[in-house]
Amino acid sequence: MEAAHRDILRKNYSGLVQAIQPVQEVVDKLLQFKVLTCLMKAEIIEKPQTSFDRELETDKTELQDPRCHIDLGNDVFVTAKMWNDELNIHVRKYDVYPSGRSYPTKRGIVLSLKHWLELSGVHFKLQEAIDQGRTHDYAHVGANMYATLDPNGGVDLRQWEKYEHLGRVVPTAKGILLSKQQWQKPRDCCDVMTDFVPELKEMVPCMGQEDHQNQIGYLMCSFCNPNSDHKAVNNVPRVQSDFFQKGRHA
């Protein structure tokens, strides 16, 4: 593909690609040929729906009363609720529509209880990086979910996915960029979440499990070491420089 054609697609990528079905397959192909960047892919998949579409497509389980609804600011909430008989914790942006009802948007991420147990340690690691003046750092939450420092001072909490043909992991649209102020509050949420989710009291962080007391146990764990194929060096994310060029705070 010639450079001129690639530039035209980049200038009009959102409208052009959203009009094509199935979107995911087209986006993956354009990413493979380096027409789109990882940030462009996330924006296309994350493109907001109209209020009419959102009200039609909202699943009934989305409207169930959660165990908690903790405000992080700017309409971002931490909620704990059941889905398919499984309890998860959501960090998600909400929209309020003309009907007066608020709905969770696609901008957010779902954490299993196993992920949630790791969040306190992740917060400590990134805060240490911030205190040392580092603006580019990350922490692995588990199973290819990463918390990555944003040069603007926030933290991007996002699910990554391994692309075999690229030989690396890349960010998906499942995630949310939290401002510095919003990122401070999940640490406080960790202290009170057991009041809403008592199941957490009986759980042990993955690294504290008995089978993780030796190196082999860690290397064999798909949660702690998802991309190594049982090798000692983890395939950490190669964050593309353009991923945070544009602010994406919720």
Q: Which percent bin holds the helix content? A: 25-40%
Main β sheet profile: 4 strands, antiparallel
Distance between the termini: 35 Å
- String of helices and strands: HHHHHEEEEHEEEEHH
Structure, described:
By secondary structure, this protein is of the alpha+beta class. It has helices at 3-11, 13-18, 23-32, 38-45, 51-57, 113-131, 180-196, 215-219, and strands spanning 68-73, 76-83, 86-96, 102-112, 138-142, 145-149, 155-163, 168-178. It has a four-stranded antiparallel sheet with strand order 1-2-3-4. Strands 5-6-7-8 form a four-stranded antiparallel sheet. Helix 3 (23-32) runs antiparallel to helix 4 and helix 6 (113-131) packs antiparallel against helix 7. The longest helix has 19 residues, at 113-131.
List the helices and strands and how they pair.
Elements: H1 3-11, H2 13-18, H3 23-32, H4 38-45, H5 51-57, E1 68-73, E2 76-83, E3 86-96, E4 102-112, H6 113-131, E5 138-142, E6 145-149, E7 155-163, E8 168-178, H7 180-196, H8 215-219
Antiparallel strand pairs: 1-2, 2-3, 3-4, 5-6, 6-7, 7-8
Helix pairs in contact: 3-4, 6-7
